[in-house]
Write a structure and sequence with these properties.
The chain contains eight helices and three strands, in the order E-H-H-E-H-H-E-H-H-H-H. With 206 residues, it is of the alpha+beta class.
Amino acid sequence: MILSAKDAPTLLPIDSRVTMVEFIGTKKDVENTLDSVQDLLKHNKVQVARTLLNTLQSEIDITVVSLPLVTYPDALKLAAKYLHDNKVEKAKSVLEVALSTFDKTTTVVPLPLLKATDLINVSASLSKNGKKDEALKYLKAAEDQLDVAEALGYVSHSSTTYKAMHTAIQHVRKEIKGKNKAEKLFDTLKNDLKDFKDKIFSEKAK
């Protein structure tokens, strides 16, 4: 019945799991860990290096397990052909393989980019209310999170780059310190960061 429906899904989710691992540290901490990993690899201490590398994650992983309904019609046709040829065992085998095959998709959401987004939103609110010094502190914290995300290797195919976001933050900082007409610049920064994040999420989900 599902397969005959007009808008039948190609994948039918049957299970999901969310896990989170957070890196507590700065860009410098990431660089120091990478230096240690390289030194360990030079001395063939691969397993110790791998353990260190595993700490260089800061993300939410959303894993969805689905039934690949798109493959069922072909499996049913092949099973029917075997039945028509009186090859019952082969028909059973085809159906068993189809029903025991699952599709697993994992979407990786980088935590530093989520933190940067929240920090920028708070900074924008503080700036709007004239609390310049506090706004600048949150803006600096957002920039630090972008540094961590870049150091951890979370990349995007967005036209926006880490360099462009840092430049945008510098422009916002200048406006906050000056005439405090940074609202439009904040909006641009938020939009650029949203596009950057969306491109990372869509790439990881494929």
